[in-house]
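[step 3/7] fold_predict: job queued, chain A
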Amino acid sequence: DGAVGVVRRRADMATKVQVQRGERLLDLTVTPTPSSKLNGGGTLGIRLAANVERVDHNKPEDLASLVAASNKEFARVFRDTASGLTTFVTGRAAQSGETLAGPVGMIRMGAEAAAADSGGLLSFAAALSINLAIINALPLPALDGGQLLFVLIEIIRRKPMDIRVQESITAGAILVLILLSATATFDDFTVLPNFLHPVLQGP
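[step 4/7] structure written:
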């Protein structure tokens, strides 16, 4: 739940918060604005970001420890991806204010990862590759997993599917994917000014 949940529940309600600026702690009173995207949940004109002071790199002692660390990281990214997909499918993403990220959003997140740590961009690229692999394996038409599903149906039916039916299903799925991509890209551009402002301002 945390800070985001508190803000969501206190739309149009004065809320006391404590903000740290440098070494100073400031007591402020803010009023979250209701958002139609969050079914009336409150929002503030800020975006949470990672607060990283130091990153420690642990060098594997041998090949076995390297493989073990890689498998552990892969399992973590896989769990996070599966959890994110479940949240999106069940509709909890909209309730929590989370949105899909398009190409612009991925570039923004990559830039933030690279700024936080020199190796962050490599980790982000690896996580993105795993995400794409998992999504591509989903049994949805127009994806590789969907093609495997068609093959499985043909094996069960013991005869090929009607090509016109298969093309219609694939075309509909592609249209849905295009609409999702367009929506995600639009959302990316709505938050892009908040990302570019501190960049253009400089240190």
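[step 5/7] annotate
The first helix runs from residue 2 to 9.
The chain has a mean pLDDT of 76.
exit 0
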